[in-house]
Amino acid sequence: MDYNDAAVQSRKCYELCREYGKSVIVMEPVKGGSLVNLPDEAQKIFDELHGGSNASYAIRFAADFDGIEMVLSGMSNMEQLEDNISYMKDFQHLTEEEKKAIDGVCEVFNNLNMIPCTACRYCIEENECPKAIRIPDLFSCYNTKTVFHNWNQDYYYNVVYTANNGKASECIKCGKCEKVCPQHLPIRALLGDVAKEFEK
How far is C-alpha 6 from the geometric centre of its chain's CA atoms? Predict the structure, then answer.
């Protein structure tokens, strides 16, 4: 998802590292878990492979390049740990069929217009936001409602995430969040989109 993204520039970063003979460590190969629970159209593409887990394709994609020293993937339980070990212990490069499937999944995501926030929370750590807006949580609500049509997100937005914290419309556009965002997201503009969706 990030390899050819103009904002993240993973390809350019990787190519520069290789130009100077530096090895590479990849973080968040599954984008904070967002590449595990796929939209139906994307899931169908992987299901047709009759192969590994969704996470396995993301992690193997990241590990498939020359000079990759390590792929750091967050795991929440023993099942995820065992899954990761199963395909990394005896690593197999991606087949052409798998590469084509990954391209297809990326195309599905790119057509969904999701906010590509990985919920690293740098934007709200150490009181980064002066209005205490829970930016990653509001972006998650927005994505879940607009992409997966989960209407429970209105409740989460109004009751869980903004009852004791700032709403998207309260952003004063100071830009502190954007300076620390590793995804280089236009957070101030995106909060405007969130406000339009939830604060009608």
Answer: 15
Overall pTM surpassing 0.85 (yes/no): no
- Compute the half-sphere exposure of residue 89: CA atoms within 13 Å on the CB side of its CA: 6
Span 116-142, mean pLDDT? 89
Q: Give tens-digit pLDDT for 32-68.
A: 777 888 888 999 999 999 989 999 999 999 999 999 9
Dist. CA 54–CA 25, nearest whole Å: 21
User: CA distances (Å), 97 to each of 48, 50, 64, 80, 101, in order?
Assistant: 10, 12, 14, 24, 6
Q: Which two tokens stand for residue 132?
A: 């205490």
Distance CA 151, CA 144 (A): 8
Rounded CA separation 55/46 (Å):
11
Give the Cα separation of 176 and 188 in Å (integer): 10
CA angle 186, 1, 106 (to 5 degrees): 120
User: CB-based burial of residue 176 (10 Å sphere; 0-12 exposed, 13-18 middle, 19+ buried)?
Assistant: middle
